[in-house]
Amino acid sequence: MTAVQEFMAEQNLSRTLMARTDSYLAMLWRVHRGEAIPGGKRLIEDMPLSLQQDVTYEETKDYLEKVPIFMETDASFLRELSLKTTSYLFSPGDFIVYAGDMGREMYCVRRGLVEVIGDDDFTVVATLGPGAYFGEIGLIFGENRLATVKAKTYCEILMLTKPELDEVLANFPIVARQIYEAGVNNEHLRDVRKAALESTKAAVRRLSIKYAQESSSARASRTSHKSKKNKKTSGRVSPEMRYTTVFKQFSRRGTSADFG
């Protein structure tokens, strides 16, 4: 802990961020007694592969089997998939995902409570507990997230990424087609995907309008600046014009003298 605190001090981290980090590390120690850090190297990696699958399958099957896209898959697929899952801990108030971000992970709540935040970035529209899941649409199609989710209490979250799912599906082509069809045909997922696409289009429209307004403002500013510059220079006579005028006046005087 002291080494971590020294590192944070050297990096000039804010007191708030340092306090959050200290709280997180303390939670890790209470939960795992320093034996393993979720998200890092697992202790079971030195076991035979079959034993690794047995252990991780027992740990995760109750969560993975509840996800609609995995409900009809067989145990052999879930056993291999379970090895690709990773467990992470979150402190109260930590954000797990942000609305608008590209979704390439699915999450299952193992312990604790998480809150789903509405479009106003403030209102809690749902609270999810153990066994709940979110992000499955991004796991299949890799689309933008519709909502922000943050930890309400200390949470242990099981995460599965799209690249890891794709790696397993390469060995199960029939299951891959089955999962894709489940994602396309599931009414709930279809509605979620439609909402995600509409949300993306709305965001693009907002950015387009903002860009058009900024471009219009910039053009107006340049036009105004150019107009002011022209006004300032309109009364000025260039050296060439002054020389030409003087030369003409001199020429006229010279002509009058010659014929006087």
UniProtKB/TrEMBL annotation:
GO terms for molecular function: intracellularly cyclic nucleotide-activated monoatomic cation channel activity; protein-containing complex binding; voltage-gated potassium channel activity. Keywords: Ion channel, Ion transport, Ligand-gated ion channel, Transport. Gene3D superfamilies: Helix hairpin bin, Jelly Rolls. Residues 222-234 have a biased composition (Basic residues). Residues 69-186 form the Cyclic nucleotide-binding domain. The keyword Transport applies. InterPro entries: CNG_cation_channel, cNMP-bd_dom, cNMP-bd_dom_sf, RmlC-like_jellyroll. Residues 215-238 are annotated as: Disordered. Pfam families: cNMP_binding (PF00027). PANTHER family: CYCLIC NUCLEOTIDE-BINDING DOMAIN-CONTAINING PROTEIN, CYCLIC NUCLEOTIDE-GATED CATION CHANNEL SUBUNIT A. This is Cyclic nucleotide-binding domain-containing protein.
